[in-house]
Write a structure and sequence with these properties.
358 residues; alpha+beta; Hypothetical Oxidoreductase Yiak, Chain: A, domain 1; Ribosomal Protein S8, Chain: A, domain 1; three-stranded antiparallel sheet; 11 helices; 40% helix; globular
Length: 358
């Protein structure tokens, strides 16, 4: 197993800010990208955290990621809006998309937002968090235009991306429900993290380049490449299909239908529905039924190996508390990849190292 660094969250932010400035990003973009990536690590989603920066730098140097880009409106009918992200940082494009959609949902009660051509939107749950903070529900269908890395159920090679799905539901007086998952068994970044940490994957998550089951994450990182499997067999495949059609073909105007083109950019399309539950149903009834159900579910006696039932969003909050107290774990291989990538941007890796306290 690779050596682990445990980096104070504020020091990690300082190091990432310096690195992101190397893109030529404006101050607001630096802050949005930095906070989004660090929050992914804090919530336990290392696959979507600071370890993504080397991939972003590759995409930037190829011209597939355009710093300081903003959303452009393609269609606007009030409660339905179509946007283009201009291949800008997903941390900025996603934030601006949700700001617009939230404002419309507050005005009209609901809004459907179709977003195309955004660079990597990172952890989709971050956009659901923006909605629940305003007491709104949001639902997100996302596709991924990059190297195909997920096999269809019954298929022997990769045909599409991890195609995430997310839902945020505010719960009055309690923490919100935040459901956020890839339709593959694991996110692609988790194969990268496992490979960098010199760990094996659990059985059933990946197939190799011959279509055979494997526990070696190298087949998700280096040629000859294999493919991740969808969660829940045919059920995850069905969900991935819907995300590709709604987030990609409909919202993004771009769906996967060919082999890898060798480019390092990661483009997302996202179809988002945002609405005010208070304008759809009796708020007191909804609150009573929701809290009653959650209490009933969480009171189930735990199985062996569990201390209690957790609902969507709870594990991430536990990770955040632990990592704020103990530091953010970053394995040595990932950290060295980040320092190497910093050099490509003309950023002094020793300065990055010093800011991180390493």
């Amino acid at each position: 197993m690779a050596h682990m660094h445990y980096i104070n969250a504020d020091r990690l932010r300082d190091a990432v800010r310096l690195l992101v400035r190397g893109f030529g990003s404006e101050p607001r973009e630096v802050e949005l990208v930095t906070e989004n990536l660090v929050q992914a690590n804090l919530t336990g989603h290392d696959s979507h955290g600071v370890g993504m920066l080397p991939r972003y730098i590759d995409a930037f140097l190829e011209g597939g990621l355009l710093p300081n880009a903003h959303i452009v409106t393609r269609m606007d009918s009030g409660t339905m809006v179509s946007l283009d992200g201009q291949a800008g940082f997903g941390q900025v494009i996603g934030h601006e998309t949700m700001e617009l959609g939230i404002a419309r949902a507050k005005e009209h009660g609901s809004c459907i937002v179709a977003l195309a051509n955004s660079h990597h939107l990172c952890r989709i749950g971050a956009w659901a968090e923006m909605a629940v903070a305003q007491n709104l529900i949001s639902v997100h269908f996302v596709n991924v235009i990059s190297r195909p890395i997920v096999a269809p159920w019954g298929g022997g090679d990769a045909r599409f991306g991890t195609n995430p799905f997310s839902v945020g539901i505010p719960v009055p007086g309690q923490e919100p429900i935040l459901l956020d998952f890839a339709t593959s068994v694991i996110a692609q970044g988790k194969a990268r993290v496992a490979h960098n940490k010199r760990e094996k994957l659990p059985p059933g998550q990946m197939i190799d380049h011959l279509g055979q089951p494997t526990i070696d994450p190298v087949y998700g990182v280096h040629p000859p490449l294999g493919a991740l499997r969808t969660f829940g067999e045919h059920k995850g495949f069905g969900m991935a299909l819907v995300c590709e059609l709604l987030g990609g073909a409909l919202a993004g105007g771009m769906a996967a239908h060919g082999p890898a083109d060798g480019k390092r950019r990661v483009l997302n399309g996202m179809l988002t529905m945002i609405f005010d539950p208070a304008k759809l149903a009796d708020g007191s009834v909804f609150e009573q039924e929701m809290t009653g159900f959650l209490e009933w579910v969480k009171s189930s006696p735990p199985q062996t190996g569990f201390d209690h039932v957790r609902v969507a969003g709870e594990p991430e909050r536990e990770y955040r508390a632990k990592r704020l107290a103990e530091g953010v774990p970053v394995d040595e291989n990932t950290w060295q990849e980040m320092l190497t990538a910093a050099r490509l941007l003309g950023v002094d890796p020793d300065a990055v190292q010093k800011l991180a306290g390493l």
